[in-house]
Amino acid sequence: ESLWTESQRTRAGILFREYPDIKKAYYLSMRLGLIYHQCKHKDTALTRLARWYDEVDRSGFLAFGRVARSIQTHYPEIINFFEKRSTNAASEAFNAKIKSFRSQFRGVKDKAFFLFRLAKIYA
User: Fold this and answer.
1) Spatial CA neighbour of 28 closest among 2, 3, 63
2) pLDDT tens digit sequence for 49-64
3) Dmax over Cα atoms in the chain, in whole Å?
């Protein structure tokens, strides 16, 4: 919101005035993002995630309920992010490159040669 242009600010004001549910949903999603950007300690993040979860329950939005349940399901992995602030994004990106490389050749027949070419290109 702080990066919005004046016309975006005007359009958002009109949109939020006409559709208050969109405004509520927008701020719920922004608060979740702020937890990840601002919290540096695991305990603080746990507290803020719990508060966010309570807000989602009170809001009644089904889509946010699914997100909240997903967070509950993967709580230990999510909290690990706040300890070291690292993700598996690099390995996911590399996996996508491998899949793309494999699809270019319509599959792999010679596994050893595939791994050799993969190592030469991406090593």
Assistant:
1) 63
2) 889 888 888 888 888 8
3) 61
